Structures are given as structure tokens and as C-alpha cells.
Predict the structure of Exocyst complex component Sec10.
Amino acid sequence: MRVAERDGGYRDSNGGRANTKGPSVSSFPTLSIDDFKGAFSFDDFFQNIVTDVLPPADESKPFDGSQSFGNGSSVDSGGKGNDFLVGQPFAEAGVLLPLCRDARSELVELCYKVDSRLENLKDEVSNYDSKHEQKFAELENGVAALFESFSRLDSRISGVGQTAARIGDHLQNADAQRKAASQTIDLIKYLMEFNGSLGDLMELSSLFTDDARVAEAAAVAQKLRLIAEEGIGIYGGYSGQQKSGTNVTPGLEVAVSNLQDYCNELENRLLIRFDNAAQKWELSTMAECAKILSQFNRGSSAMQRYVASRPMFLDAEIMNLDARTVKGEFGPGGVPNVTKGLQSLYKEIAETVRKEAATVSAVFPSPDAVMAILVQRVMEQRVDNVVANILPRLSLTNPRPMEDGGFQEYLRILAGSYEKTQELAKELHAIGCGDLDVEGLAESLFSSHREDYVEIEQASLTQLFQHRVAELKSGIGLDAAYPTTAPRLNSRNGMASANTTISVTVVGEFVQWNEEAIARCTLLTPQAATLATNVRAIFLCLLDQVSQYTTEGLERAMDALNEAAQQRNLYSIGSTVSRRVAAAAATAAEAAAAAGERAVRGFMVAVQRATSNVALVQQHFVNSVARLLLPVDGAHASCCEEMATAMALSEASALKGLQICIDTIMAEVDRLLAAEQKAIDYKPTDDGNAPDHRPTNACTKVIVYIRAYSDIGSGLLSVLVGGSA
């Protein structure tokens, strides 16, 4: 086996050099490295080598299975090549072989050249890298030196800047001192002008006479006043130490007096200009004058002048219109609804103040101070006038008649006006009023009405109670107060029957009045401790009213029981009367028994209603009163004890009446037994038969009678248990 070598020869498998056969024909074109640059194609390279040796191929003849090669070989039509070639294969090989050897030699030489060039390139690249690293190191050193130079330059610039800043500060200080010195010279000159003759303001500089420089003149005049007043203090103390008879240089009293006169004159001129601008509604001129006037007593004169000139404080018709607006709203029945009218008026006042706030913000440099004066004037003049008109002072010794609403109507107006006034105060505070405590000012408007509020509230509850009781005694509102279908029995003294002695509806009215009073007390008494004391006093009124009403009702029901007992005793007869008298007495006794039965039933109903009324009071105490008593130690427990004490009298009357009911029932049982029981009912039979154990007629009637009262007693027991729960 032979292996091709790089130099164009061959060596065998043992490493020996083999000789080539045949002579070397060198007609190979010279190759260059540039021939392999770009897109290299081996087919084109081979074609260039053999194009002069091989004949061109006939591409017009298609190749088939029986086509013969140039060397005599062929392929059969069956698609299978012959196993043996006929004739000499590749006759052109002898010509191509030298060309291939020459091409190989040329290519090997090119490889050597390429390798040599690569080695040279490696050396060049290595030298270039060395030079680049050296240059990079030199650049780094240069950059470091440049940064150091920049740092020195920055320090130098900073130092120069600081020096320039110090120089600028010195220049500014010098300029400020120059200006201060110039202003001091001018002030001294102006001060000497004012320190001439007393009252002589004719020889003043143009600054103080030019209307176009009023603002500057006002500022200078204020400075001169301060200087002159300080000078009087200094030189006045010094001159006080001089002995009498020595010559003392006159001080600055003349300057102070003249400056005061000038400032007053200037302020008056500005106020006149401000008023003229206000009449023409020239806001820019008003703002200019207000700004200058702010240097005189902080502008209080302009603020007071503006607020006092508002139409709502000058026009008396507006005050009358306020009263008509409040009383112009009517409620049900044509009664004036003062609260609704007050709400309409306060809405109009708030809208007016809101418009004034916009003007004040555009004119005055300190709008909060002006709004404080305006809002205070509104509260003290308009609101106070309205409150005094709708809330006249009341006297407990001369109560307001119920036809005019009584004390309750006054208290409702008081609570409504207080609430609406507080809402107005909050709205005015939201609009803006500076540091003014407008809510506290609103509180002060009602201070005189709140001094004796609790006494008036108690008098109102007493008045309502007495009026309602008088209506019940006169028969007014009985159908609404006593919604019962039970028949009524008129006693001899003309009082209502037992069924109309106590009403849950009436006590519900008492509780409703008390709830309304406690709601007013909560509104009018913001302090927790005072509120607890007032609420306790108001609740005690309810306890007294319910206790009195319940006790009197139970006593009237007991009067019916006693009357029935008297009738029963009146018709009791002995056993020695005639049959006709006994029959008449029996009829009267039955009538008295029926009256007693109605009286017992009426008393049971009264006890049930009294228990329901107590439950109403207890529920009212839990829902509305108890939580308000907690801020005061012991108030809750004390109120519970007083509630138990107030109900003790009613409980005693109820127990006494129940005992009378039991006596009445037992008397009726005795009457039934005496009338119906016969001596033969328990006599044994003569025939010896067993006795009849069926109940007698008397026993049956007594059982029916007792059972009827048992049903009433069960209902009463359930009510008592529910009320105690």
C-alpha cells in the first residue's frame, strides 16, 4: 500500500519512499493564493486544470443504460454494470496523473507559503500587542495625570468662587449699608421737617404731599414715628437728670405731634378714598387703599369701616324682614313653624356672608381678620335680634297658657333655634372667620335662656300632666285614652268606671313627653356631669307623674270595690223575714254580686295596665336615661332606688285592692253556697243505696265562678311576670 506524501512522492506502508512511474509532464498553470480567496469551487478548479487535456463532453446526448465510456466499458440495459471492464480503463489517466501531481506540488507549496505567512502574522500581532499594551500603559499614566490636573483646577476654581462669593457678600453689605445710610439721611431730613413748628405741615417734602406716593409716604411716616418716640424715651430720660436752669436742647416732641397729625390726616384721606371706591365698587382701588391702611393700627379702621357699611347692618328694614321670615313659615293647623323659618333665614345669612367673603379676599391683605369682625357682627346683631324676638323671657310664676302652646312650645322653639344657630355657626366657620370662636359665640346667645332651662322643663312636664289629667276628668279624649269595649258603670259620685281608671295610652304620652324633654336636655347641655344631673331631674318628673296617676287609678278602682261591698252588706238579711222580703233581698244581693264581679274584673284590668305602665317607664329608663347617668358616680343607682320608691305606693295600693278582691270573691262564694246549698244534699238515702257523689248545683256554680276568676288571675300573673322581667 502506498501513501501520498506532501512533497508529491509516495511512501509505502513500511515508511520507504516509492518511485513514481512514468515521466512527469509539467503543463500545470501556476497557482496563487489569491485564487482561493472569496467563494472557492472545486469543480471550477478541476475544470481549469483539465480543460486543455480532456475533450469537451457532449452534453446533448442523454445518458442511457447502454452508453459506452471512452475506454470501451459499457453498462447493460438491465441497470446492472458488468463485473469486468473491457479494454484499458481511463485512457486519459496517463495525461491527468502528471497534472494532478503538479497540482498537488503547487498546493503543497501554497500551504508552505500560507504557513510562513501565518507565522509572520503571529509575530506581527504579538509585536503589535506589545506595542499596544505599552501605549495603553502610557495612556493610563496620562489620564491619571490629567485627572490630577483637573482636580487641581477644580480646587482652584472653588477657591476662586469662594473668594468671589466673599467679595460679593462684602459688596452686598456695602451696598446695603450705603442704602441704609442714604435712607437714614433721608429720614433725618424728613424728621427735621416734622420737628419744625408745632402744627406746621406746610413745608414738607413732595413725598408727603404727592397723592401718587401715598404708600411710600405712609411707610416713611410710620418709621419716623418710631424713631421720634424712641428718641423721646432716650433724651427724655437724659433731660430728666439735668438740673433746673440749664440749657437743654429741645427733644422730638414736636416731631411726634406733627407726625401723629399727619398720619391721622393721611389715614382719613385713605378712608375717604376707600369709601368712594366702595360706592363705585372699584375693587382694585379698595385693595390699594386697604393695603396702605394696614400700616395704621394693622388696618383696623378700614376693617371696621367696611363691616359697618354693609347694608345688612344699616337697613332697619332688613331686621324687620328677618322677623317676618322667621314667622312666615306655617306648620299644620296654620301655626307658625319657627324652626323652618329660622332655617330659611340662616340660609340667606350664610349666602350673604359667603358673597362678602369673596369680596373681602379680593380687597384686604388680611381677610381672616375682616371676616372675624363681620361674622361677630352678624352673630351679635342679626342672629341675636332674631333669637330675642322669637324667645321672650318667661316667668315661672306667670306660666304660658296651654292655648298658646304652654311651656312646651317655648322649649321646642328654644331647642330648634339653638340647633339651627349651631348649624349656622359651623357653616360660618367653614366659610372662614379667622380665629373667632363662632360656636362659642353662638352658645353665649342662649346663655340667659339656659340658666333656668331645667326648671322650665320641669314646669312644662307638670303643666302637660295637669292639663291631661284635667281633660280626663272632664271626659275629653276618653275614647282615645281608654280604647276598651267593656261596659262602663257609673258610680254614685259620678266617676268613671273601673275600666277607665288607668290607661297605657296616657302613660305612653307621659313617656313621650319625657323622651322629648331628655332629647332637648341632651342638646342644650353639652357638659356630661351637668347633663346627668338635669336628666335625673327630668326623669324624676316622670316617676312622680306615673306614680300619682297609677296610684289614683288604683284607688278609684278600690272605690268601686268598696262600693260593691257596701251594697252587698246593705242587702244582708236575717233568717226570720217573710218570703217576699227574702225574695227581694235575694234579687238585690244578686245585683250587688254582679256589681262586685264587675268591680273585681275592673281592678284586675287596672292592675294589668299599671304593670304595663311600669314596664314602659323601665324600658324608657334603659333606652334613654341610663347611659346619660353613667358619667356621675352613683347617679344610676340612686335613680334606680328612687324609681323603686316611687312605685312602692302604687304596689301597696295594688296589694290592698287585691285583698279586697279576694274578700269580694269569698263573699260571693258564701252567698252562692247559702242560696244553692240544701240540707238534703248530703243526707243518706233511706233505701240504703250508695250516696250520689256527683257535685251539687251549689258546687257547680261555685266552681264556674272561681274558674272565671282563675282565668283573670292567670292573665294578671303573666303580665306581672313579664313586667318584672
About this structure: The CA atoms of residues 560 and 599 lie 6 Å apart. The mean pLDDT is 75. DSSP finds 20 helices and three strands in the chain. Residues 98-183 form one domain.
